[in-house]
Write a structure and sequence with these properties.
A two-stranded antiparallel sheet has the order 1-2. The radius of gyration is 26 Å and the shape is elongated. It has 54 residues and is mainly β. The protein is built from no helices and 2 strands. Helix content is 0%, strand content 39%.
Protein backbone atom coordinates (compact mmCIF):
# COMPACT_ATOMS: atom_id res chain seq x y z
CA UNK A 1 0.00 0.00 0.00
CA UNK A 2 1.33 3.47 -0.85
CA UNK A 3 0.59 6.94 0.44
CA UNK A 4 1.51 10.28 -1.10
CA UNK A 5 4.32 12.28 0.51
CA UNK A 6 4.58 15.99 -0.36
CA UNK A 7 8.13 16.95 -1.35
CA UNK A 8 7.66 20.63 -2.24
CA UNK A 9 5.03 23.28 -2.97
CA UNK A 10 5.59 26.50 -4.90
CA UNK A 11 3.38 29.46 -5.78
CA UNK A 12 4.11 31.66 -8.80
CA UNK A 13 4.29 34.57 -9.08
CA UNK A 14 5.74 34.99 -5.63
CA UNK A 15 4.64 37.24 -3.94
CA UNK A 16 1.11 37.00 -5.36
CA UNK A 17 -1.04 40.13 -5.53
CA UNK A 18 -4.80 40.42 -5.01
CA UNK A 19 -7.06 39.61 -8.00
CA UNK A 20 -4.34 37.88 -10.05
CA UNK A 21 -3.94 34.37 -11.36
CA UNK A 22 -1.51 32.15 -9.52
CA UNK A 23 0.02 28.78 -10.29
CA UNK A 24 0.46 26.23 -7.50
CA UNK A 25 2.91 23.39 -8.22
CA UNK A 26 3.08 20.39 -5.87
CA UNK A 27 5.76 17.70 -6.10
CA UNK A 28 4.59 14.39 -4.60
CA UNK A 29 6.15 10.92 -4.37
CA UNK A 30 4.66 7.57 -3.37
CA UNK A 31 5.88 6.23 -0.05
CA UNK A 32 5.43 2.54 0.71
CA UNK A 33 3.58 1.75 3.93
CA UNK A 34 4.62 -1.46 5.69
CA UNK A 35 2.40 -2.96 8.33
CA UNK A 36 3.92 -4.89 11.22
CA UNK A 37 2.44 -7.16 13.83
CA UNK A 38 1.27 -5.33 16.96
CA UNK A 39 1.76 -7.03 20.30
CA UNK A 40 -0.37 -5.98 23.25
CA UNK A 41 0.08 -6.99 26.87
CA UNK A 42 -2.56 -6.68 29.56
CA UNK A 43 -2.60 -7.67 33.22
CA UNK A 44 -5.50 -7.35 35.63
CA UNK A 45 -4.72 -5.68 38.95
CA UNK A 46 -7.22 -5.81 41.77
CA UNK A 47 -7.67 -3.43 44.69
CA UNK A 48 -5.23 -4.22 47.51
CA UNK A 49 -3.19 -6.59 45.37
CA UNK A 50 0.56 -6.19 45.54
CA UNK A 51 2.44 -6.57 42.31
CA UNK A 52 6.09 -6.96 41.45
CA UNK A 53 7.89 -5.41 38.53
CA UNK A 54 6.04 -5.96 35.27
Amino acid sequence: MNRPEIQSVSISPNPANAKTSIKIAVQVTDKVITFGKTLEYAKEIYSGQQIGVI
